[in-house]
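Retry 2 of 3 after timeout on previous attempt. Resubmitting structure tokens to design endpoint.
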């Protein structure tokens, strides 16, 4: 089995450092990919620091993968050497449960995550992610990425893009919908771009006054500094859908009040500790809902990539060599990211 250079964390308290992994030889259904770019998701930080309590080490994160096909198995049609492809958060699922049959592999209880899942192919102790030079993936979990998109800017679509696209579609956002977004980081800035491309009137809630101008450039029609409670109160009863991307526990109640009757706040941010309690009356008196959403299925991820190609949408990225990854994590924890770090994987060889 080929060895591949990678970066891994060996424990919750050690920084990411060079590490060597093995990838399986491609089987008949496999696509072997040379990774050119990998986005840095806040989930990678939650895992590396074991904030959700189920990390297995060594941990090689990375699930916003873009690269070129180097080899395909003899049962693979639709991909050939040289094609630009992507891999997101999933590399396998059971394929037989009701969720898989509904093309919602992301909700399959037996899905295989791109990293930190048991490795069914036994090429390692568990799956290793995209902070590495190559990956071998079953053809059904490989996505086509348009040559018209910048590959670094396209990488974050594989998680930040689909995680925000999926609830926008599920809640039927269209021209004239009023959509709010909480938190202007990787997910938040994709939510703004996608919602505004769908024709929505977008309100951005940010704790960072320095990001207000950017929010407008990204497509927000209104910007509310969420630390200013009067400004949040003024936005009461205005929104059909609110996508909350914040990675830390915070008071949800002021945001619930920004929803109109029948509006929904969809939580995609996944803090390690619970949010403070939600008040019930503001939900009951306006038939409002609080929901959650997890990435998206493979079919919807391809639909999102095609939508982005049609609308020339990519992430705003700061490209880094992998040697700067620990610095990038420290900056993300200070909300100092505009708006996604993406690793140039050529740096791993250099
Ligand atoms: P990110 O790039 O670090 O952005 C998070 C943003 O949240 C920050 O830029 C900041 O925006 C805001 N924020 C951070 N701390 C805050 C605090 N204490 N109070 C208020 N606002 C705060 O993170 P990301 O990659 O977008 O990921 C966000 C969350 O989504 C993470 O928890 C991640 O694990 C989760 N996630 C979930 C899914 C899913 O399928 N549901 C998929 C991917 C990621 P402002 O400066 O604008 O306030
Ligand atoms: Zn992610
Ligand atoms: Zn399944």
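Retry 2 succeeded. Sequence:
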């Amino acid at each position: 089995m080929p060895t591949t250079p990678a970066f891994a964390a060996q424990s919750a308290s050690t920084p990411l450092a060079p590490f060597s992994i093995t990838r399986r030889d491609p089987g008949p259904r496999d696509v072997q990919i040379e990774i050119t770019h990998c986005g840095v998701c806040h989930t990678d930080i939650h895992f590396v620091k074991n904030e959700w309590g189920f990390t297995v080490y060594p941990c090689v994160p990375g699930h916003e993968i873009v690269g070129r096909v180097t080899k395909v198995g003899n049962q693979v049609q639709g991909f050939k050497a040289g094609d630009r492809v992507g891999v997101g958060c999933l590399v396998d699922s059971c394929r037989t449960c009701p969720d898989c049959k509904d093309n919602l592999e992301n909700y399959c209880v037996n899905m295989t995550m791109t990293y930190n899942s048991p490795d069914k192919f036994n090429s390692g102790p568990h799956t290793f992610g995209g902070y590495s030079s190559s990956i071998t993936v079953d053809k059904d979990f490989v996505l086509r990425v348009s040559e018209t998109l910048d590959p670094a800017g396209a990488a974050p679509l594989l998680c930040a893009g689909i995680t925000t696209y999926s609830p926008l579609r599920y809640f039927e956002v269209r021209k004239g919908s009023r959509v709010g977004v909480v938190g202007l980081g990787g997910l938040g800035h994709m939510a703004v771009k996608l919602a505004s491309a769908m024709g929505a009137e977008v309100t951005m809630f940010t704790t960072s006054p320095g990001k207000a101008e950017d929010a407008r450039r990204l497509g927000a029609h209104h910007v509310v500094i969420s630390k200013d409670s009067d400004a949040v109160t003024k936005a009461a009863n205005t929104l059909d859908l609110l996508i909350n991307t914040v990675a830390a526990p915070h008071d949800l109640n002021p945001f619930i009040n920004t929803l109109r009757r029948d509006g929904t706040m969809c939580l995609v941010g996944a803090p390690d500790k619970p949010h403070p309690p939600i008040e019930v009356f503001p939900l009951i008196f306006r038939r409002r809902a609080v929901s959650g959403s997890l990435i998206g299925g493979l079919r919807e991820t391809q639909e999102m990539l095609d939508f982005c190609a049609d609308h020339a949408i990519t992430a705003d990225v700061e490209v880094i060599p992998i040697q700067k990854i620990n610095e990038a994590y420290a900056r993300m924890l200070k909300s100092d990211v505009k708006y996604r770090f993406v690793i140039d994987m050529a740096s791993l060889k250099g």
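Attempt log closed. The chain has two domains: 3-158+315-349, 160-292.
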